[in-house]
Amino acid sequence: MSESPRRYAVFGHPVAHSLSPRIHRDFARQFGIDLSYEAVEVDAAGFADAARDFFVAGGRGANVTVPHKEAAMALADVHSRAAALAGVANVLTRRADGSVEAHNNDGAGLVRDLTERHGQDLRGHDALLLGAGGAAQGVAAALLEAGVQTLTIVNRSPERADALADRLGEPARAHSRYWEDLPGLGSYDLIINATSAGVQGKALDLPFSLIAPRALCYDLSYGAAASGFLAWARAAGARLALDGLGMLVETAADSFEHWHGKRPDTEPVYATLRAEQA
Ligand code: ATR
């Protein structure tokens, strides 16, 4: 009798169009690993029960996306250093003793996409992070670790920007400003859009003055959700305007390695998805 395939999943709301199942299946094919990876559509009220049921039923690991990253952190029994630093989790893993570990590889994925795929050196940059929700929390500490000189966090609701800046604990490098300050803030050579405005089909109305000469702009989302911010970046003269497709593939590769102990080759998977997005 053959063993049933190991079970993995992504939990989100909405999650139907997630590329994660396809990416994990492509990675698995590189190693001849038999796995099942499903997209689980569940709202905030149902997430904790759905995730617990998944692990009790033998699920090995799950990716967690909007809006469950904080709840994933709360549900776990243990937390990796990256998850503890971020305060939110995008990976849950069942350990041998049945306990569940929370991990966060959003920041590592972003930094690897920028530095390795796109050859950018982040050291010494003055960075502007738009947003202070789950996505922003996931990448803020990693940007500081990658060597940005300063990190300015701007959020529509000020208390969330303050809370994220406080949590980073580096007042000389990381601080908060508010949305209405944007026109007077000066310019930045790295601007990261971590808001969910694009996902909701809303425009951000950002001033061109934010863009320093040769600025690099990055949207953590991809596809139609990223198009408004990237159009603004190009119109404002950014040297490079990138969406988060590469980050998605890199975070998936980190999750895959975390679960299977093997590092997949991300390039063919990224190239195929990129060609389809064009
Ligand atoms: P995610 O996990 O995608 O970060 P989230 O935790 O709900 O989702 O956070 C969404 C982020 O996008 C928040 O920073 C939010 O700002 P508020 O904290 O003020 O709500 C930001 N955001 C969403 N829509 C926005 C808009 N139209 N303009 C500016 N910021 C927006």
Can you describe what's shown?
By secondary structure, this protein is α/β, with parallel strands linked by helices. It folds into two domains: 6-104 and 248-277, 3-Layer(aba) Sandwich (Rossmann fold), CATH 3.40.50; 107-243, 3-Layer(aba) Sandwich (Rossmann fold), CATH 3.40.50. 41% of the residues lie in helices and 22% in strands. The protein has ten helices and twelve strands. The strands form two sheets. The protein has a six-stranded mixed beta sheet with strand order 2-1-3-5-6-4, sandwiched between helices. The chain has a six-stranded parallel beta sheet with strand order 9-8-7-10-11-12, with helices on both faces. Helix 5 packs across helix 6 (134-145) and helix 9 packs antiparallel against helix 10 (266-277). The model has no long low-confidence stretch (mean pLDDT 96).
